[in-house]
Amino acid sequence: MLSYIVRRILYAIPILIGVNLVTFALFFVVNTPDDMARMQLGIKYVTPEAIEKWKHDRGYDKPLVFNKAEQNLDQITNTIFFEKSMAMFVFDFGRADDGSDIGQEIKSRMMPSLAIALPVFVLGLMIYITFALLLVFFRATYIDFWGVVLCVALMSISSLFYIIGGQFLISKMWHLVPISGYEGGINAIKFLILPVTIGLIGSAGASTRWYRTIFLEEMGKEYVRTARAKGLSEHIVLFKHVLRNAMTPILTGAVVVIPSLFLGSLLVESFFGIPGLGSYTIDAINSQDFPVVRAMVFLGSVLYIIGLILTDISYTLVDPRIRLA
Fold first, then answer.
1. Was domain 103-318 assigned CATH 3.40.50.10800?
2. Ramachandran region of residue 184, left (φ > 0), alpha (ψ -120 to 50) or beta?
3. In whole angstroms, what is the distance from residue 302 CA to residue 279 CA?
4. Residue-wise pLDDT tens digits, 10-62
């Protein structure tokens, strides 16, 4: 197990380097530092001197990947690529264009994002899987039919509708919870109730239908017919055997959610004024703060790779036949 984890971590290094190279190309080759300076200073009436000063203040006045003016290792280290991209491997994200420390901002904003994402993730798994099992238990009945209709209806409605409608109805008309904002400590609950509820409703349709499909596929397999032939009741077959064998695809699907647990929900945090990583990313995109966007892309890649490793490890817990050598 330990050797497997070490190998996966070693495999992750070239993947992160590749992500870094693609990100670097997008930000500094396709979109050169001169272009970045013009976008920040204003495309019209910007002087070459102002562009050079902007680049110098932010360390963008150096060569991209190779510095001919330096000697030995400084030819590689004294470049934009090494200082802006390679430093992220030790989680040194540098400073944003407004001068703030990106690493410190990430630390301070991670908890508000987790405060929304963790309840949505945990409660969502329990609610969606339970609802899907219920539909499969009553498959080919009116309960199953109208449950699928409800899921399709929920899938067809934009998440923006739930956000705006929830703010208007629950906050503005009924005054049950604040319409936006955030406070630390126990007072955060009143600000999180509505975003978490909307997050659960917004994902209910697609997630429930996906779990229902997995369970229905398992229901047609040989071990289910064998269990029924032994005289086991339908709810034991469904909740004990089918659910256990369906955990592998469920865990595979859950891994894509892990980055969002830390990076937050872009729309929800922005609309509800929650100072999490999602709203931080949206603000950086709107203000064209390239260091922040680069840092969030890299952090998302790291979290996704960690999620893949954790998923592979969890396979051994739900399926003893799987061994990680």
1. no
2. beta
3. 20
4. 888 888 888 888 888 888 877 788 888 888 887 667 888 888 888 888 888 88
Q: Which residue has the tokens 């260091």?
A: 291
Amino acid in position 16: L
State CA 272 to chain mean position distance. Answer: 18
List the structure tokens of 270: 């922005």
Range 171-183 burial, b when 16+ CB lie within 10 A, else e: beeeeebbbeebe
Instruction: Tell me how far apart the alpha carbons of residues 16 and 131 are, in angstroms, rounded to a whole number.
Output: 38
Query: Distance between CA atoms of 308 and 15, rounded to whole angstroms?
Result: 13
Kind and range of the H or E run holding 130? helix 102-137
The boundaries of every CATH 1.10.3720.10 domain in the chain are 103-318
Separation in Å, CA 218 to CA 127, 133, 186, 212, 224: 20, 12, 43, 10, 8
| Angle between helical axes of 277-286 and 102-137 (0-180°, round to 10) | 120
Q: Per-residue confidence at 174, pLDDT binned at 50, 70, 90?
A: very high
Mind listing the pLDDT tens digit for each residue in 52-102? 888 888 888 888 888 888 888 888 888 888 888 888 888 888 888 788 899
- Distance from C-alpha of 181 to C-alpha of 272, rounded to nearest angstrom: 6
| Contact residues for 264 (Cβ-Cβ < 8 A; gap 6+) | 109, 112, 113, 116, 117, 274, 276, 277, 278, 279, 280, 281
Q: Which two tokens stand for residue 190?
A: 């009143």
194 pLDDT band, cuts 50/70/90, is very high
Distances (CA, A) of 227 to 54, 131, 199: 71, 23, 37
User: For 86, how many CA atoms within 13 A lie in the half-sphere containing its CB?
Assistant: 10
Q: Which residue has the tokens 């659910």?
A: 243
Report the DSSP beta bridge partners of residue 95.
101
- What is the pLDDT confidence band of residue 321, given thresholds at 50, 70 and 90? low
The length of the chain, given as a count of residues: 325
